[in-house]
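Handout, page 2. Input:
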Amino acid sequence: MEKKRTTPEFITELQPNEIFVFGSNLRGMHGGGAAYIAYRKFGAVMGQGVGLQGQSYAIPTMQGGVETIRPYVDEFIQFARDHQDLTFLVTRIGCGIAGFTDSDISPLFEKAHSLDNIVLPPGW
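Output:
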């Protein structure tokens, strides 16, 4: 059985069809963590806290508990399902500045395991 690709800990460049998926806040203030990298390197737009922007995709993680993140993850998974021509490299969203753990966030991505174009962090 072929081992599924996982997201590297540090992403410094992307192929043309790859999208950097990062945790954001609803206001789109990309001032730290992966959001800052998305803004500086991959086309994230200051003031846009959700969805595709440049070569990045924002999932809000700073607005409350895990259940407030779930609808945005579900929306992302549907977006990836509808855009099979793109490969989405999911960072450990919510596990930095937002203060969640891998065990808090990874279950939200259960439906992503069936999609070949979503690459998840190790252990997710």
